[in-house]
Amino acid sequence: MKQLFQYNWQVREEWFNWCKQFTTEQLLENRAGGFGNILHTLLHIIVVEYDWINDLKGGKGYKFNIEEFNSIEDVIKLHNGWHAEVERFVTEWKVEMSSKILELDDGRSFTYGEVVNHVIVHEVHHIGQLSVWARELGSSPISANLIGRGLQF
Questions:
Q1: CA 121 to CA 107: how far, in whole Å?
Q2: What is the mean pLDDT of residues 25-39?
Q3: How many Cα atoms within 13 Å fall on the side-chain side of residue 2?
Q4: Residues 107, 108, 112, 117: is their CA dihedral positive or negative?
């Protein structure tokens, strides 16, 4: 599980760098699927990861105005501001935590393991969308290959 988070974070950083070759207008261009464009889909990935991890820690969700994020630098700044907290939770994860129950205010409940796995695959799903959009821009997408990233399993 920890290695899959590390994989997501590596790929995310590569997408951040990839974005820097495009104008903000290109990153905000309307697209089918995801959060409607490249920039806000990356923002969505970060917010979902943080919100779920924060829920597991007993915190509250982050309320944000999507219009406040108008550049890749804004998105990277948010990621950098939250990443250490998320990484600490992932690093300190113990397998025994998998069966703990998260009770949401809306009456739904999930195991911690289910939530953590959801966060992982949620980002992978959106990486696929970003890859399609990269090709639409005439650019090679970031490799989604897990092999060769130096992660120890």
A1: 23
A2: 93
A3: 12
A4: negative
| Predicted pLDDT at 68 | 87
Q: Which of 7, 25, 16 is nearest to 79 (CA)?
A: 16
Contacts of 106-115 with C-beta under 8 Å, sequence gap 24+, read 112/56, 115/52, 115/55, 115/56
pLDDT tens sequence across 72-119? 999 999 999 999 999 999 999 999 999 999 999 899 999 999 999 999
Cα angle: 82, vertex 50, 117; to 5 degrees: 130
Cβ-contact 114, 58 below 8 angstroms: no
pLDDT, residue 63, reads: 79
Q: What is the 3-state secondary structure (H, E, C) of the chain?
A: CHHHHHHHHHHHHHHHHHHCCCCHHHHHCCCCCCCCCHHHHHHHHHHHHHHHHHHHCCCCCCCCCHHHCCCHHHHHHHHHHHHHHHHHHHHCCCHHHHHCEEECCCCCEEEHHHHHHHHHHHHHHHHHHHHHHHHHCCCCCCCCCCCCCCCCC
